[in-house]
């Protein structure tokens, strides 16, 4: 199963599962990233941190460690 970090720039994916513990998982959910939501990757910094995404019409920045906790399924 792929993580949000594996999705290329300009790609979209559907969130399948959130892993992680405590504060990291809560932070991800507070941003509106939950199971079944479509996420579009807009930009990735040169060293891979942060990753800028669009979720539910909002532009968000995720740390590499947070993106690795979001399990996704690539949209066709």
TrEMBL record:
SUPFAM superfamilies, alphabetized: C-terminal domain of transcriptional repressors (SSF50037)
Give the UniProt keywords, A-Z: Iron
Entry-linked InterPro entries: Fe-transptr_FeoA-like (IPR007167), FeoA (IPR052713), FeoA_core_dom (IPR038157), Transcriptional_repressor_C (IPR008988)
Give the molecular function GO annotations.
transition metal ion binding
Q: Which residues form the Ferrous iron transporter FeoA-like domain?
A: 2-74
Highest taxon listed in the record's lineage: Bacteria
Q: Which SMART domains match?
A: FeoA
Protein name according to UniProt = Ferrous iron transport protein A
Q: Give the species.
A: Slackia equolifaciens
């Amino acid at each position: 199963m792929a993580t949000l970090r594996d999705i290329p720039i300009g790609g979209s994916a559907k969130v399948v599962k959130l892993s992680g513990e405590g504060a990291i998982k809560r932070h991800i959910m507070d941003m509106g990233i939950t199971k079944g939501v479509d996420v579009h990757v807009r930009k990735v910094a040169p060293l891979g941190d942060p990753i800028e995404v669009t979720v539910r019409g909002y532009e968000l920045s995720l740390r590499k460690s947070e993106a690795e906790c979001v399990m996704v399924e690539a949209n066709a």
